[in-house]
Amino acid sequence: MTGLASLTWLIGTQALSDHIVARVNELVEAGTEYAQACTTVTDAADAGEAWAIAATRQTWERRPDTGEDDAPVQRLYVLERTGSTVVVTDLDLDTDPDAHSTLGLPPRGQHLGDEAEGAVIDVDLLNLYDLTAWEPFEHLLPTAAVPAAGTTGVGE
Q1: Strands 58-62, 119-122: parallel, antiparallel or unpaired by DSSP?
Q2: Contacts 24+ apart (CB under 8 A), 105-113
Q3: pTM for the complete prediction?
Q4: Bridge partners (DSSP) listed for residue 131
Q5: Integer Cα distance of 27 and 110 in angstroms
Q6: Backbone angles phi, psi at 50, to 5 degrees
Q7: More confident of the two residues 118 and 133
Q8: By CB neighbour count within 10 A (0-12 exposed, 13-18 middle, 19+ buried), where does 93 fall?
Q9: Which residues lie below 8 Å from residue 126, measured CB to CB, with a gap of 6+?
């Protein structure tokens, strides 16, 4: 799933805006002019480039045109993003533990089967995958209870 329209549909306007602003700020802090940073990030997000859209609480699935040698794990879940790396876990371990393979992963990615720790990989490796789900932290915020009609909701 790529494109700003698809991302907006997936997580909503506010969450996507917050994410894009964070990426723009990273580029500005690195010395890029603000206007150029905005263009760079929005163009990259629209193209589905992992460096621009990868974030915590995402599910990525290997692209149909990507071979198992290049991306040995079918579905990845991003536990955390830290700069140019992501900590991921293998979502297929629960359904098929024998399907797990560390072939082709960098040495620090050999712990992919450890769901508690995950594996640290370069964010660019996610370009071999498509983003299929994203649960931004905004969806975890509590909602305010609305009192029933005819009540004040206080001490009743």
Answers
A1: unpaired
A2: 105/72, 112/73, 112/88
A3: 0.70
A4: 60
A5: 30
A6: -60, -40
A7: 133
A8: middle
A9: 50, 54, 60, 76, 86
> Any residues with CB less than 8 A from the CB of 8 and at least 6 apart, and which?
16
Residue 106 identity: P
Cα R_g (the chain), whole angstroms: 19
End-to-end CA distance of the chain: 48
Percent helix, strand and coil across the chain, each to the nearest 5: 40, 20, 45
- Both structure tokens of 46: 């629209």
List strands edge to edge, sheet with 119-122: 119-122, 85-90, 75-82, 58-62, 129-134
What is the Cα–Cα distance from 105 to 136, expressed in whole angstroms? Answer: 27
Is the distance from CB of 62 to CB of 71 less than 8 angstroms? yes
**Listed residue (16, 24, 38, 6) closest to 130, CA to CA:** 6
Helix (H, G, I), strand (E, B) or coil at 112: coil
Task: Find the angle CA(48)-CA(43)-CA(19) to the nearest 5 degrees.
Answer: 70
Nearest to residue 129, comparing CAs of 54, 57, 56? 54
Q: What is the pLDDT of residues 26-75, one digit of tens each?
A: 999 999 999 999 999 999 999 999 999 999 889 999 999 998 888 888 88
